[in-house]
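Why run this: before we spend reagent on co-expression, it is cheaper to look at a predicted model of the complex and decide which construct boundaries make sense. The entries below are exactly what would go into the expression plan.
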Amino acid sequence: MPPKRLDPREFLSTTRLVVVAGKGGVGKTTVTAVLARAAADAGLRVLAVDLDGKPTLADLVGDVPHLSLTAPDALADYLETHGLKRVAKRLAASGIIDVVSTAAPGIDDIVVLGKLKSLERSGDHDLIVVDGPAAGHAITFLLSARGLLDTVRGGPIRTQALDVLEMLGDPTRCQVVLVTLPETTPVNELVETAYALEEHVGVQLGPVVVNGVDAGDGDLVIPDGADPALAAAASFRNARRAMHHREIERLSDALAIDQIHLPHVVTAGITRDDIARLAAGL
Amino acid sequence: MARRPPASAPEPVLVVEPVATTAAELSAALGAAEVVVCCGSGGVGKTTTAAVLGLQLARDGRRVVVVTIDPAKRLADALGLAGGLTNDPSRLDVDAPGELWAMMLDTAATFDGLVRANAPSPEQAERILANRFYRNIAGALSGTQEYMAAERLHALHDDPHFDVVIVDTPPTRNALDFLEAPGTLARFLDHPLFKLLMMPTRRGLKVLNVAAQPVLRTIGKVVGGDVLADAIAFFQAFDGMETGFRDRADAVMALLRSDATRYVLVAAPKRDTIDEARYFAARLREATLGVSALVVNRSTPSFGIPDQAVGRDTADPVLSALWANHDELAAIAAAEHDQLAPLVADVAPAPVCWVPMLPGDVHDVAGLHEIRRLLFGPDRPTG
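The model came back. Tokens follow.
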């Protein structure tokens, strides 16, 4: 089946946890905000989650409920709910998260995934949209559960890892949305990430989001003798549109996954209003 | 699903003329540099910028090596690194009086080398290298990559074969961690776990007592006893090696803080990359180090002012579309300049170089030359 343009609303009600992943600079946070906004506008109870503790996502989603979930917070939370409350504060405060995650790589990821799993299980939200880690880290992040099963042979972390694996393997509970720009390197990296996720993690891939598409209505016509400044601007625009078209074609050839296209926003800094417009335009 | 690599894209076509740049200022800023550190967030073209600066310096007759962390595949091809990860420099064929070499940092191999150089005996080195905990941190501990990049940079700087080392930092906020106060230990010996483990040993307590500490007991409960035992064995194997590591770290730090080292910030006109660049600028300022240049990649170029005789209010739909497009791009370019203004102010008086968004990726040396001309101006005839 060839890839097609997808109605995002259809997708947003098929699963409960969406992890948005993509290379730095492709607009992961924008896409997270647009999906959260669109789902909220469609009447779903949505929670938008960032994992970096930065205020950007919270700004962009406006009145959609938001949670900032960093690894140290998740670890402290984890320790508290596992009978280790007394040392939890001391551990997190003294940077011990670094020690723990060094001793058993992936433990910081698994406590975050574990927290997402309990949010997903709580029934308080129809949809949780997570501004996930950058592409390279997305694979290790999602692989952390499997990796820990090899190193940790018992105890609460193992149970946690098993629960997370179960969620990742169930498309009605969790899917991954990969984001790219219609440019060569981001498209190549998305294709690599998609194959790696399918092969190693076994998580269901939702639609691919192509962000910043300058679609336009065909080429601008540049008549002979046109003003040089106007002509230069037009050929720049035509070249960019041609590149976007070419890269979207290439992505469709390489990956049989439905696509969502977000138009290029004519601004240098995206705002909450832009997000609302993009969500309405889906 | 069968793996099918995407077909490679057609040749990019440059549609923009080289913009007026602060080419002379940029050349002057890099003039006597022995080390150039390129900082910026992921996806802003940091590696490309590092390679382009290297190309220009090679044209100036210098022998340059570019150390990159994780180049995009096509750029790796352009840099002759298609064979995959190699910790040894390979030379590029670049028709220049100087030389251009490139290498990809292998964090784990660099770390192994450092352990071998500092261990009192080959046996102790092997004990450390074989430790499971070591294998985990050598590649993955946060900050290790940054530290090893600095270590490699120092070694290449000492190598008489190279005049200039250009390093492309990892795309993390920790990229400048190696600038932290002189006199600190190498980052991983500063590790809280190391301190915890070493304290009791120095007090003359038995090794076995270490694992009985409450904090370690807690960690053991969470991660499992065998994982913890590996960690303890590792740090104890390191006992006595701190001095060598500290001396080495001090030497690296002294180089990074010397006049021979220049810092080039790389950003794109997007909020997140600008925030990251401002963060780096602030870190450098705290360390009383200046920014030598700011390179803004992927900017919307300016196309000049159209002849008003053609008229924005034309009834001709073709011309009217051209006007609308021109005005839209001009508005984007103006918005980008506004957005970059705080960063430009942060780095003043450093030159700011705008590289327009190109319709394709750099995938060969010719592509690097195109960008070099955008940064440093058109080539003058030789002779």
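Chain A has twelve helices and eight strands. Residues 228-254 of chain A form the longest helix (27 residues). Bring this page to Monday's planning discussion.
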